[in-house]
Amino acid sequence: MARRRAAAAVAVVEPQAEEEEEEEAEEETSGTTLHFNESLTWRAGNKPATGELLRRLTALGEELKELDQGEDVDRDALTRYAKELVHPNLLQHKDKGVKAHTVHCLADIFRLCAPEAPFSAPQIKEIFSVIITSIIPALSDTADPYHIEHLYVLSSLAQVKSIVLLADVTSPNQLILKLFETCFDILSSPGQEMSKNIEYHMTSIVESMIDETQSLPHEVIEIVLAQFMRADPKLAHASSSKAKKGAQSAQDETEPPPLAQYSAAYNMAKNVANTCVDKMSRYVSQYFSNVIVTATSSSAERSRKTKGRNSRRESSPVEDDDLDGDIGPDTEGLRQLDKAHRLLRELWRAAPGVLQNVIPQVETELNAENVDIRIIATETIGDMASGIGAAGPPPPALLDPAVYPSFTLSSAARDSGALTGPSAPSAPQAFSQTHPATYQSFLSRQNDKSPLIRAALMTGIGRILSTSAGGIGLEAQEEIDLIKMWAEKLADTDERVRIAVIESIGTMHFLDIVNKLGVSGGVDKPGSLLHNLSLLVKDRRPFVRAEAMQLLGKIWGIASGEITLGNERFTILFGAIPSAILNAIYVNEIDVSINIDRALYESLMPMGWPNVKKKHKNALQSQDVDSQNHMEPTNLEAQADKLRAERLLTMLKDLDDKAKKVFFSLMKAQKNTTEYFKAYLKRCEDYKGGAVEENAKEVKAHLGKLIDFYAKSFIDPPRAGEDLWKFAKQGDKRNIALFRFSVADDSDYGKVYKSMKEIMRRTTEGLSTTTGTLPQTLTTLSYKVANILYNRSHIHPIMEFSRSADDSLANPAHELTKEVSSVRPGVFKAHIQELCNVLQDQAPRPGRPNEADALDSLKACASFAKRFPKEVSKDPNFIQAMTQFALRGTPAATAKYATSIIMSVPDKKELRMNDLLKQCTTSFTYGSEHFMARLATLSQLMLLAATSLEETADVDPVIDIAIEQVLLANRISPSTEDPDWNPQPDEECEAKTWALKLLVNRLRSYDSAEKAKEAATPVYKLLNKLVVNEGELTATSSTPKPHRSWLHMQAAIQLLKLSTTHNFDEYLTPRSFNTLATVAQASLLPVRQGFVNKVQKYLGQDRLPSRFYTTIFLLTFEPNRKLRQDATTWLKARAQLATKAKKTTFETTFFRLLSLLAHHPDFENSPDELKLSADYILFYLKTIATEANIPLIYHIAQKLRSVKDAIDSEKSENLYVLSELAQTIIGHFVDNHGWSMQAYPGKIRYPSGLFKPLPSSEVSLEIAQKQYLSQELVDDLEGHVKDNMRQTKKRKSGDTENTDGPNKKQRGVASAATTNGAAKTKSVNRKAGTKTPKKKRPAKVRQDSPPPTERRKSGRGAAVVKKDYAEVSDAEDDLEMEQWEDGVEAGEEDESDSEEEEDGSDGGVEEVAAPRDSITAKRTPVSKRTKPPAKATEADDSDDELSEPPESDQD
Predict the structure, then answer these.
(1) CA 683 to chain centre
(2) Separation between Cα atoms, residue 350 and residue 344, nearest integer Å
(3) In the chain, N or C: fewer CB atoms in 10 Å?
(4) pTM beyond cutoff 0.70
């Protein structure tokens, strides 16, 4: 064979040329003569002993070994011994030693005779057969007595490259295959350390075979490539030497630990691939092409078989982006494709040069039709760019928010040796620069139609970012672009893509989150990745919400250490995370509430943190502890309590107003829920595991109600109910006792934590495999009831922080102290004396005012004193200090709370009460020193002891002070330059506010209507006058504008406060109520907002009659976008609660709304004006109406044509006009929604205080037959309804928030009853395209307030926030938080505990039957009609009360 070889290669001598060579050899001069002259063969029957044979072979081998390759040797002798050595007697000898020495000699003959080997091709094949099957395998046994000979043969083959002769023999493929298998098997043998020499020589042999062989069998290439898969820990631990078998067997094994280093077989394959780049690249490309062809051929065959069947099948109307037109590879084909692509990942790490022809094929796969192929290609390129090989991605970073000591930058150095070997991401080149076209094609998958591909891309990007492109590093702009793509895909239309980004972020090291993801901005910066991530806590998909919330919680938990230390960057990046989590409650879904609890108690304030044990004592005292005030700890538990309190205050100080409201409401709801949970535990005891003997039926029924109540707060109520029944049936007294420990106010944090931990352990271990979801249910329930944050262990450190000079924690500490004292005053029992001592030190003295932070401490002490009056200090010095606060306190609110504390102490109560009254009234002069404190004290005395004071003292001086010296005296002259509103009222305005509260508090203190009757009339007259005159009391209109505005709002609020008491609501007549309601349309935003907020607060607490809901519907034309949106969502939330409670509160409110509109000062019976009234009705419908309740609403609208106005009979026609208008609008509203509406079959009773029956049937018939709407208006209403509903859908999010101004118009009260009673002008600023209203006669308008035309309608085209997949954003409406705030809220007013629920009716009720022809059959198809059971629905407010859970005190 004619081919070029290396210089040391040996030529094969063909058999037919042997005789010529021998003759030529005889003529040549003999060279160096061999000393060995013994025969190595024998005749039959003359076989030498094995020992003798070994001696001869050893002697010959030693002599040959000493000869140099270039030395002139006697070729005759070499030829003679070569013939003898290849004799079968030696090569096939049974003794291993004979074989070893024989091959040893043959190796030297190959070396000495190069480049012409003295053997025939068959002899060469026989020689290498022995070497490959016997000699090389023996190298695996280093203890073999002939190991030196074996190693010598291997070395000779590698150095002389005589192994290449194997390629020229006949049919060498089997031997070549065996050679490769044997070499790689030896190097991969487990449990043995191979000499580096063996690895080196085998590598050289394999490289020579690849270089000098034209074409290697594909099995050989597979063996070489299979070695790269040994980087996979599963395959590395496989027992089989063959890659296919190894891979298959490893798939089902338990996940092995990561490999610490590469195997010798891997290293040899890597060296071979990098040395033989040209040929290996060709072989790899061919291998990859074969895999693709095999996989696609199977899919083509299946496609051909199903083509006929599919062509006859009708196309589905549902399109799925995840499905492609062609049929992809089958399971086996996908397995092979996945295996080949995992190989590519490792080849990129080990030998990127061999992939130069493969990468374009992978790029082609990115654009394949089949989704599975695109997924594999996308994942492969992502891993290659990340330097991730067959071992897969590195273990994700552990984001543990409960780790202690907390993360700080000073101790954040990474463990550089954590990952080595195959598990460590490592890229030899920057993929994006080596293959830029492929990389860009990879990134373009962000627009792939399949969400699976987009999700795979997001995962790949995450790995690129977390590994810094396999350690190569990313350019700044490239990193920014990847993060921007991630941020955009957090709003992807498919939840799988959003989840992929969330999960990828969760695998990143925290420093990467800070340094890489934080580059785009913090949680508060719109458009940043962290901001978009925070929006997902309100995602429409529950599991997306859950994942986002838990991830954000972990991030903040880890960052809390640096935030506490005052790291501004960490605060900017992550400080708003708790707010984002808590504000998710506005989604109003059960799973969100559960996830918030999980995030709160597992990440933000993880249970058991900090884990202070003896082994952590040194860390606790080190400078890296996340505390701003390092102390020498004398008690580990006390220091742990301080760290927890500090973390809680750190979280609290960064909460926004809405989130803070949520947090405090959750804590309040937890306390309320705890009371019912105690009842549940008591019933579990009574139930005795089902063995109850007495009152069994009653006990079980009560227990069932409690379980039903709690089950509703779970995602799966039936399952939760089963678990709670299971707990009750266990009757485990220890578990019940542990739960009692966890909810008790006197349990410290350690006791609560240990109790919860033991409950989980006992529940899990006790039930074994039958546990099911019981532990999860009990954990969720524990978070809702356990006394974790408002714990007695935290009170002392919180009080310490409140007295610190650092305002960053002192302010939230004061706020938290106040809230804890209000919600859980019981936890203050152990610390109340300390609080009293603090207040005693802070009290004012002559010439020295009280400390500025005393107000919150006084408020906390007052809340505690109200609940536990016997626990308050009775020390005379303390009482004297409180008296000083009452007489000299600054601000005046300190006097109010000090008075409450004094009045809570039962000893000498009357004496102190009269003494305070005397000191406050004696020589009282407006403007004297501390007169404001005395005025506040008098106000509180009127609330707490007015009845007692009237029996023992004269209170007339108090009333005179309030009215004559304060309210009726204007000490500041009005000016044209006065602002309309002053956010901080001046001294005179504040004094008048306290005077109003004094008068109102006196009424509230009466426990019966008879006692209050005499005093109530003048107070109501005064308050109504302030509302009607918009804050003006004097006849000369001498009150400054900011004072009028403030008093206007305060008078309205005081009327609301009085209406929360049943005894006084009757004094607010329907006519006065209508005037009060229009305060929601006052000219100034602060007035409207303050009034509306109070209405919502009291209604949310179920303290106001339901008639006050009508005031919120007057915000239809509210120009302030946020106020209107907040009110809209609040109404929807309240309506949902009423619907769940099966109440018709909001449906029957339609009676009152139409009555209010009929008496509205802007009402006028003209087409243009009635369209404005139509907008009020549409606002009501869009907020309240559903397909289920629309028949009742329509029925109520009809009823107004069968009654007469009881407030003003002359306004009856207004009712009939609105009745016809409402019916017409409801009809168009129903048509636009495509609803079906049937006649309401029940009966409805209207409020008799608003309406009264018609005098006769003739009048009723006349009204029924008359048309009150002009035909022009009737024709326009259909389009008007469509336009109104279309505007709601098409509002844009870019509109800025409106504010009051001359160009902003709001439909509102037009100074309904001024002192001169002048009528007011009504005009409308219409949109383009609407008709111009008729001109009205000008009327006198007050010069010191905006004209009525400036306060009518505005913002009907205002845009709503653009919806994304974070369904409810922070800019959207405020869900009513008062659903958690049961009972009296501790606030500035210090409300009495004796408030009663009101029915708020305006008189008796009259019942009217529904007409039979109320709705035509044409509007309601017969097929869609349903007939609900007939039931009378009352419109009086007594029906508006929401149902309550079972009372806990019924035990």
Answers:
(1) 36
(2) 10
(3) N
(4) yes
Place of tokens 């072989």: 283
Q: What is the mean pLDDT of residues 415-438?
A: 81
Token pair belonging to 1068:
């607010």
> In 10 A of CB 1413, how many CB atoms?
7
Residue of 1192, 1114, 1119, 1182 whose CA lies nearest to 1153: 1114
Instruction: Give me the amino acid identity at 449.
Output: K
Q: What are phi and psi of 30, to 5 degrees?
A: -65, 140
Cα distances (Å, whole numbers) of residue 148 to 143, 1192, 1199, 1385: 10, 103, 113, 93
Give how far the C-alpha of residue 969 lies from the chain's centroid of Cα atoms, to the nearest Å. 56
Name the helix (H) or strand (E) containing 1407.
strand 1405-1408
3-state SS, residue 686: helix
Token digits of residue 163: 């192994």
The tokens for 1012 are 């209050």
Residues 6+ positions from 901 with CB-CB distance below 8 Å: 858, 861, 862, 865, 872, 882
Tokens 């051929």 belong to residue: 297
pLDDT computed for residue 1442 by the predictor: 28
Residues 6 or more apart in contact with residue 315 via CB below 8 angstroms: none
In 1030-1144, alpha helices (H): 1041-1059, 1062-1065, 1070-1077, 1085-1100, 1109-1113, 1121-1140
**What are 511's two structure tokens?**
């420093």
Stated length of the chain: 1451
Identity (one letter) of the amino acid at 855?
L
8 A C-beta contact, residue 906 and residue 864 = no
Highest mean pLDDT among 774-778, 951-955, 1365-1369: 774-778
Q: Cα(627)–Cα(630) distance, rounded to whole angstroms?
A: 6
Q: Which two tokens stand for residue 225?
A: 């490539």
- List C-alpha distances in Å: 1041 to 981, 982, 1025, 1084, 1205: 7, 9, 16, 11, 36
Burial of 698 from C-beta contacts in 10 A (0-12 / 13-18 / 19+): exposed
Q: What is the mean pLDDT of residues 1075-1087?
A: 94
Q: What is the DSSP letter of 14?
A: P
Across the chain, mean pLDDT equals: 80
Percent of the chain topping pLDDT 70:
80
Between the two ends of the chain, the Cα-to-Cα distance in Å is 106
11-12 and 116-117 beta bridge pairing: parallel
d(CA 887, CA 350): 85
Report the pLDDT averaged over residues 843-849. 86
Q: What are phi and psi of 490, to 5 degrees?
A: -70, -15
Q: Across the strands, what pairs with 1434?
A: 1245
Place of tokens 């000493």: 66
Distance CA 997, CA 1058 (A): 11
Please give the helix or strand (H or E) that residue 835 lies within, else none: helix 832-842
Residue type, 1247: P
In the DSSP assignment, the letter for residue 1332 is P
Distance CA 1053, CA 1067 (A): 15
What does the angle CA 1258 – CA 1264 – CA 1266 come to, to the nearest 5 degrees?
105
Higher pLDDT, 514 or 414: 514
Tell me the β-bridge partners of 1252. 1204
Integer Cα distance of 1312 and 593 in angstroms:
45
* Range picked from 164-178, 515-529, 691-705, 1385-1399 for highest mean pLDDT: 515-529
Q: Match 């601000």 to its residue by tokens.
A: 891
User: How far apart (Å, rounded) are the C-alpha atoms in residues 718 and 715?
Assistant: 9
DSSP 196-264: HHHHHHHHHHHHHHHHH-S---HHHHHHHHHGGGGGSHHHHT-S-SSHHHHHHHHTTS--PPPPSS--H
Q: Hey, CA dihedral for 290, 292, 295, 301, is it positive or negative?
A: negative
Question: What does the alpha-carbon distance between residue 874 and residue 869 come to, in Å, rounded to a whole number?
Answer: 10
Amino acid sitting at position 489: K
**Residue 623: what pLDDT?**
42
